[in-house]
Amino acid sequence: MDLKKFEVWFVTGSQHLYGEETLKQVAAHSQTIAKALNDSPQIPVKVVFRPTVKTPEEIYKTLLEANTTKECIGIIAWMHTFSPAKMWIGGLRILQKPLVHLHTQFNRDIPWGQIDMDFMNLNQSAHGDREFGFIMSRMRLNRKVVTGHWQDPDTLDRLGAWARAAAGWNDWQGAKFVRFGDNMRQVAVTEGDKVEAEMQFGYSVNTHGVGDLVAVINSITDSAVASLVKEYEEKYKVADSLRKGKGQHDSLRDAARIELGLKTFLEQGGFKGFTDTFEDLHGMVQLPGIAAQRLMAAGFGFAGEGDWKTAALVRAMKVMGAGLPGGNSFMEDYTYHFEPGNNMVLGAHMLEICESIASGQPSCEIHPLGIGGKADPVRLVFNSAAGPAINASVIDMGNRFRLLVNEVEAVAPTHELPKLPVARVLWKPYPDMRTGCTAWILAGGAHHTGYSQNLTAEHLRDFADMAGIEFALIGKNTELYSFRNELRWNEAYYQLNK
Question: For position 169, what pLDDT does the model report?
Fold first, then answer.
């Protein structure tokens, strides 16, 4: 995923009142800032300078062009001088791309000994941006506001987070996700309104029978299977029983054929992710284990048991985190460690945790699944790296979608897990186990999540704003009384906002 194929447009507001000489300086300053942002390693997309907009017609034309330019995923707006905000109403009304308001000025410091009225007339961001901010608040527009000098590393970090969220949001527009079979029977939280999701998020979810997939799997050639098995043996520590000439080698070949069939099906259908369930595997030899893990590592979204919302979220997180160290994966809170003073969550799934979060070389193993009634599936087994991370869940609340995020600290296992045949990660939820888990349950958080080592709550907060959905954070400063009130206030807000 090369995020440099995307553009954000740097649009500066002014007006003709100041005269041509001042407008030339405005344009020169804007070009300098746009180039610096484009060259910054903290901003993963192209930043494209656009000519200064000085009239309602210029503003409307520029923002309309942004809507229809495929490569443009958002707007950085800055008011170098005073730009009367009524000029912006028409353009902002039709803008369909995310917007970040950069509240900055060209000079970092006041030139104490030289400042005069010419300088004051040129450098009016301090009140020009307030005028611009008012009209967006008056229009109830979602946007991010980043305040600080354009050369400040923190300012660049904030803009970079927004640009990554914009890339994830852009990736959802027109995306397709496939659901093989249906939801796991009787499960509530993995269900949801797919029609409402398409209207709200821009992606579609449609079901294909497992037989459609099996037909593609069965068409994979033996030579292609042999090539992929060789890749497994070169990349992973393959269990002896799975090697050629050993008793379970055919199971490794079956797993490789499933991976190739899935990849072919997804690529031919233009799908960006998928979900399946072990309750609907008719015609398949084993549940896709290593296949789901490796396809996630290749950038596809995935979630188990029919959970299309989490599959789409994992895909968006993959895009947002592109190029950053660390990975993103489907995850599930599986079991707890309630040792006094050392509470932890063990995250895992039956099979499908992405190898992008692995610490060290994964091992390729085969073990009984215990449920599903199919042959023993092949999977990658590994521990995950320690460090800061987040867990995120998209929940259908009936009248709206909620994006719930818990900041966590992953820890290295202090004990061996020789009998646990799945990939896993241990973490401590913030602010503590009791508060974090209680808040998650009060918010209706799912047991399925998108787990990220390289994104922060800021990325997903920006993403939720772009989607126009509720965002709830369980972090280092969360207190249950305030969090419960926040949920109640949100309920009232979204009822009134409809």
Answer: 98
